[in-house]
Each structure stands twice: as structure tokens, then as C-alpha cells.
Amino acid sequence: MAVFLTLVLGSVAARVIGWAGVDYVDSWPRAVAVGLATMFVMTGVAHFVNPLRADMIAIVPPRLPAPALLVTVTGVLELAGALGLLYPPTRVAAAVCLFLLMLAMFPANVYAARMPSPPKSMTSRLGLRAAEEAVYLAAAVVVAIGGGQ
């Protein structure tokens, strides 16, 4: 829920700042880019901080090799994507890449939801996790379509 709230509150706060006259966030797609970047900084950092890192390693499906390396790589990609969202010339490309990254990582969330004892930091209800994922994907689409304004 913290990730979801970070996206929503970050986007709304950025848009309010835009209404106050800051051109950088003078549209919803630009504000959502800031909210999404804030969200990905939070989740990207979590890839490197225990106990969250250990929890993420634990939910990598067993058929994938080198879970710790995969968690490190996805954390770096999330942080790079967050930076890309904040730099207008790369914003659209970053949104598209993060959309694809979220799709690629979603099977780990399905696996976690089906674990008998998933890590406490992971959303264990698949329906809720899928609904949150839909919002994150939609946010990336909003940025990809309108972020070049």
C-alpha cells in the first residue's frame, strides 16, 4: 500500500505545485511522471536494503537463475528509470521501459501470492496486487502518451 500511496500522493503533490505555476509539472502526465519517479526511487532503493532485499530474493521464481543478481539488476533499472522519468528528453522512453519492466517482474508477485508463507513485506493477495499493478501500468501509459508535452 505504501508504494501505491507514494505514486498517488507524489502525483497529486506535483500537480498542485504545477497549479501554483511551476511549468515542470504543469500537466497531469508530467505530474504523474514525478509521482512514478518517486515510487520507483522507493522501490528501487528497497532492492538494496534488508529485510526488503531478502524478501525480494525470496519471491524470485525458482526457475529463474541467480535471484540476488536479478534483484540487483531490477533495482538498478528501477532507479535508472526514475531518473529517466525526471529528465524530459528521456521521459517517454523511461515510461515505456518501466512499463515493460513491471510486466517482466509481475510473475514474481504471482509466485509470492501463491507461496504458503510469503514474506510479510509482500502483498499476499493476488487480486489486490494485480489491481495495484494495473494502476502502475496505467500511470506509465499516461506518461508515455502525454509525457512529451
List the helices and strands and how they pair.
Elements: H1 2-19, H2 28-46, H3 52-58, H4 67-86, H5 91-114, H6 126-146
GO cellular component, one term: membrane
Keywords: Membrane, Transmembrane, Transmembrane helix
Membrane topology: Multi-pass membrane protein
Number of helices: 6
Mean pLDDT: 92
Instruction: Output the radius of gyration.
Output: 15 Å
Describe the oligomeric state of these chains in a short phrase: single chain
Main location: membrane
Subcellular location: Membrane
Transmembrane segments: 30-52, 64-86, 92-112
Protein name: DoxX family protein
How does this model look, in words?
- The mean pLDDT is 92.
- Helix 2 (28-46) crosses helix 6, helix 3 (52-58) packs across helix 4 (67-86) and helix 5 packs antiparallel against helix 6.
- The chain has helices at residues 2-19, 28-46, 52-58, 67-86, 91-114, 126-146.
- The longest helix is centred in the last third of the chain and has 24 residues, at 91-114.
- The protein has one domain (2-146).
- With 149 residues, the chain is mostly helical.
- The two termini are 30 Å apart.
- The protein contains six helices and no strands.
- The chain crosses the membrane at residues 30-52, 64-86, 92-112.
- Keywords: Membrane, Transmembrane, Transmembrane helix.
- One of its GO terms (cellular component) is membrane.
- This is DoxX family protein.
- Its main location: membrane.
Note the main attributes of this structure.
149 residues; mainly alpha; 6 helices; elongated; membrane; DoxX
